[in-house]
Amino acid sequence: MPLRLNVNHEFFRRTRREKGITQAELARLAGCTQSAVSMFEAGRRDAVNDATIQTIASVLDIDLKGPDATGAEAAAAAFVAKYCPIDDCPSNFPYLVRNRVLLMPGIVNSAVQEKTRCRLCGELLESTCSNGDCMAPVTRGACCHLCGTPYVSFIGELNESPELFVSRRQTEVRNLRESMQNQSRHGFIGSAGSCDSDGGSRNGC
Ligand SMILES: [Zn+2]
Ligand SMILES: [Zn+2]
Q1: What pLDDT digit, counting tens, does each position of 156-183 carry?
Q2: Architecture of domain 9-76
């Protein structure tokens, strides 16, 4: 019966490098092929059997039950980027690209399994692209890096020019965030500053 050891492959690679051992040397010491070591380090759990993993661990002086080796630490720290899907929430910072109002979500990092609510409006945060056919994980920026859909679409009506709207709304959002952040010491990772510099072509979707 196999042990089915849980291993953090990247940690094995890192430890080998730190010790200045090549894949070929490790393979010779562990009695397997270099390509098996290479595949194992790249994340192929089936590249070597458990007995070989134990040999590799002893060569590299790795505690197989330690949180680094099992990846438990990495799993506990599995944070993902999330955003608030509400277009008029002040966590989403408006800016103008080619006369269109775009929204730069204020990204919050939170544990994958955690149901996180927006600190500013209370809405449940999203961690995937707003396009239901895409569902790519969220990265920084206004639009999905895979399908180009804006994470948050501006759906409000404009009773003024987009320029006026955006500059008025930017001031409002800054003020709102400021007053809300003063109430809470947990500053959220907003992008009021970065979206000004990030604005323009790259985030033009
Ligand atoms: Zn919100
Ligand atoms: Zn997408």
Answers
A1: 888 889 999 999 999 999 998 888 777 7
A2: Orthogonal Bundle (1.10)
